[in-house]
Amino acid sequence: MYWIREVDGHDGEIAETREEIHKLTFFDSAAVPKFDHGHWWLVRHAANSVAFAGVISSTHACNAG
């Protein structure tokens, strides 16, 4: 079973998990986001973290993510 939960962007263990998933997904082709900004969700399947999603404020449009 999968679960999706919003996580604390300042939690060091959660940040390490998101960074690891990011690197496995994008290798070196995309910069690692600043996980202490925005809102973040973590997806787990059984005991394994398998994905994350995040929304940060847009630098191009007001009131957008």
Any overview of this molecule?
The protein has one helix at residues 12-26, and strands spanning 2-7, 39-45, 48-55. It is α+β, with helices and mostly antiparallel strands. It has one domain. It has a 3-stranded antiparallel beta sheet, covered by helices on one side. The protein is globular and about 40 Å long. The mean pLDDT is 90.
Which features would summarize this protein structure in a list?
65 residues; alpha+beta; three-stranded antiparallel sheet; 1 helix; 23% helix; 32% strand; globular
In short:
By secondary structure, this protein is an alpha+beta fold.
> What's the number of structural domains?
1
Radius of gyration: 12 Å
Compute the separation of the termini in Å: 29 Å
Mind summarizing the main beta sheet?
A: 3 strands, antiparallel
Number of strand segments: 3
Q: Walk across the major sheet and give the strand order.
A: 1-2-3
Helix-strand sequence: EHEE
> Could you tell me the strand content as a percent range?
25-35%
Tell me, rounded to a whole number, the average pLDDT: 90
Helix and strand content put the structural class at: alpha+beta
